[in-house]
Every structure is written in C-alpha cells, then in structure tokens.
Design a protein that fits this description.
The structure is a single chain. By secondary structure, the chain is mainly alpha-helical. It has one domain. It has helices spanning 5-18, 47-64, 70-98, 119-147; strands at residues 26-29, 38-41, 103-104, 107-109, 112-114. The strands form two sheets. Strands 2-1-3 form a three-stranded antiparallel sheet, with helices on one face. The protein is elongated, with a radius of gyration of 19 Å.
C-alpha cells in the first residue's frame, strides 16, 4: 500500500538518486597547477551518470506505485540496488582510472562539501529497507491467507 513504510523508503531513494544532479562526487581540473580550472563532477556534466540517476529514480517511483502486486514489486525493487552499485562503480572509475585530472574528494574541499560519492550507498540502503518492508507485507498476507 502507499501508506506503508516502504513507500517512504522508495520515495526517499528516488529523491536521493536525483540528488546526483546537484551534489558533486569529484573534482576535475588541474588541481596541482595554480590558477587551473576546477570543476565539480556531478550528473549534470556526466551523461552516463545522468542516465543511471534517472533510471534509479524512475524505477523507485514505478515500484512505489506497484503496491497491488507485491511479487513484482519485490523483483523490481532489486533494480535500483543494481543500478546504484553500477553508479558507484562508475563514479570510482571516473575518479581513479578514466582521467588522471579527476580527483576523488570526500568531505570538505576549499569550503565546498563534496559528498556525492555516498549517494549510491544511501540509495542501496533505502532500497534494501523497502525490499524488507515489501517482503514482510507479503509474508503477512500469506499467513492471513493460510488461516482462512
């Protein structure tokens, strides 16, 4: 049902995945050179990351409104987890291996907070919590059907 706890977790997961458009996950530019241009990387300036973020958000919202079919909801609830793992892997690849100018920054950098690398982890946690809530509802319905 829409009023259940897992609905909150799915909605928050969709919002968190959309935060990838606003929160940077790394710093790109000539950090070592004085006067080098510094650009914070996020989904707005990285097309594959933008696609992954939109897919995570859309899937979480689709799962949210499939409350009448809990089995399908449980299957589709695993997709944001997979997409979040891919997103995290892509972010790490971009910062460590793709371009030597990209620097992974976690925490505070030059009076800017750079914490976007944790967004996929938050989406994973919220999706797992939603999955567990859906699973508990399905078990409750099965136990009630057994008593009839």
């Amino acid at each position: 049902m829409i009023q259940r706890k897992q609905s909150i977790w799915l909605f928050l997961g969709a919002l968190a995945s959309l935060l990838l458009f606003y929160l940077p996950y790394a710093l790109s530019g000539q950090v070592a050179e004085p006067g080098g241009a510094e650009v914070f990387l996020n989904a707005r300036n990285d097309m594959p990351l933008a696609v992954l973020a939109v897919l995570m958000a859309v899937d979480s919202l689709i799962v949210l409104f499939l409350y009448k079919d809990r089995k399908k909801q449980m299957k589709l609830c695993l997709l944001p987890i997979i997409l979040a793992v891919l997103t995290l892997g892509y972010q790490i690849y971009q910062t460590q291996f793709a371009n030597q100018q990209n620097k992974l920054v976690i925490g505070l950098y030059d009076k800017h907070i750079v914490i976007g690398i944790f967004i996929p982890v938050i989406v994973i946690i919220l999706s797992v919590m939603a999955y567990n809530g859906i699973k508990k509802d399905e078990e409750l319905v099965r136990s009630v059907d057994r008593l009839r």
